[in-house]
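Risk register update: the risk that structure generation would not scale has been downgraded. Supporting records follow, first protein first.
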Amino acid sequence: MPIVVNLDVMMAKRKISAGELAEKVGITPANLSILKNNKAKAIRFSTLEAICRALDCQPADILEYREF
């Protein structure tokens, strides 16, 4: 998939655990894991907005397009 989720990189930069981020965003740790591991087929804008708010970042800090 050419869209890569760099959520783990931003989480490390912000020193926040998966459990803490899931709680702040309001999603389950399992769904956060799906996002982190590039297994997600889609993401709601409301979820992306909540992640960006919690990590104080822009969507481009999390999502990347790579042509393989």
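Supporting record for the second protein:
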Amino acid sequence: MLRHLQNRKIVAVLISLFLIALGYGVILPVLPFYTERLALTEGISGDQISLHVGWLTGIYPLLQLFFAPLWGRMSDKVGRKPLILLGLLGFVIMQLLTSMATSLLVLYTARIIGGAFSSTIYPVGNAFISDLTSLETRAQGFALSGAAISLGVVLGPSIGGFLAQNQLHLHLEMGHFHLDNYSVPFLFLAFLGIIIIPIIAFLIKRRDHPERIELSGQKSLASPFSFDHNKISLFLFLSFLYQMILTLFESVFSLYAKNVWDYNAASIGLGFMICGLVMGILQPLVTAPKVQKYISGIFQIITGFALFGICLVLLIFSKNQYTTWFLITGLAAGGALIAPNIITMISLREKLAGKAMGIQSSVNSFGQVIGPVVGTWIFATNPQLPYLSIGAATLLLALLLLMGRKKLILLIGNTSTQVDGH
């Protein structure tokens, strides 16, 4: 019975993560056109429109950077369920405001609300998974969360592009009220969120509060951004690097494929789809307990960074689309090896799961902000330089981790002993 309740709650978390990721994916193909329509009505020039698209894209992870640790720490005090529902409610409000936006100000307001409140889902959802899984199954639990996110990001752009082709007309007593085609994807997401919220509330019926950890003195007033640097700083740094490299690849790929390889939008979209699908499929497989008995988490992380580096460097030598898809598959496989194992290490090293996942989510958001900025800046200097330089640096990182693997294995061994003792 207990196992059934735990599985039901994990399903609820996965649905929540999928919905948030779906929202992120849906807006990617629609935001430039939606922003342009609103900006033109306000007399904004074309160059400024591009800047607004960048700001509207970047403000979401920027707010997650600041809010994720706060929500994660709060969930350690009040429980996971209330904050997951709050995040979903914020998501619905963001979608409704976006669908009805009549100015850029309203669109910015929607993105700010979404970034602030839906940022609860990633840290609190992963903290909940940490609560519900054992040491042996935790990596696979995080892999499932990664797969749910990858699936949402993969499906999002195609859903957004398809729904944006449909006009919506509502006939009301006050007259004819028209929402244009760019409103449809966001109304769909809002409707989906309204349906999902009561389902999540039902799946997590019982009080889900994690074991209370009484803190006294200064520790009770500690900032949600504070942590024991000796315990998780290395893994947080690796998490930041992974997210920065991944988003740098994603931001540069569209530019490189369009300007250097002369790919069309469909080919570029296929590249992103392959990346998301491979990561979504492989994460649960490589983190299965039987697999981890033979290939440890730390060795998977090292192998993942090595694959990242090799594939990034080789991408600049790709001569056809088949080679490109093969290298993207290898890069995505590297990501599947890295992401769930790093988050598992962080969860094991910090006693407060919500706090740990909040900091980790914040670090990831910082990587999402830095990656595109660094990538596009280097690309403007030399189109081949981003993948060549970052790929070589990633290979060097993998080599350094390989050389220090014995210390890392000892560190992880001490972690397991500490957790088991607790």
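The mean pLDDT is 80. On this basis the risk owner (M.S.) recommends closing the item.
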